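Quick start: read one record
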Amino acid sequence: MSCIVADAGPLIALAKAGLLELPRRAFGQALISRTVFDECLAQARSHDAQRIREAVDAGVLVVCDAPDWPVGRPVPRLDPGELSAIALALHHSAPLLMDEKRGRRSAAHMGIPLVGVCGLLVIARRQRWISNVHDVLTAMKRDGYYIAPSLVHKVLQLAGEE
């Protein structure tokens, strides 16, 4: 079965939008490291943390222990969640759902295929799993998820909404 490994940022954004099933639908299985899971639940009373916990309980997201960092590879200066997500993606030869710029740069340098939350939304729109991307992006931005205006424009073009 194919899979994708997810970092905390995109999961929290998808939880806020009620779209946590998208990574699994698009990639077969959605794996998260225990460290990423703990980061997502850091504010255990927040609605998005509850949704993430429910997604794990339902098997929509699968929590895994991250493997040790690969021997011989320099360890990038990233937070523990990003490091564990990259290590898990390397271990499973899986794409990585990550939006954080430094983490994406490090993962790309290691040859890991990358998908951002915006790319996932384009996939979902093309598969007709969501009716439009614009409203989802607007809600994510309203909830504090930063998306560069130039990226919004490009994503809406790719989704056929502009």
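The two ends are 35 Å apart (CA to CA).
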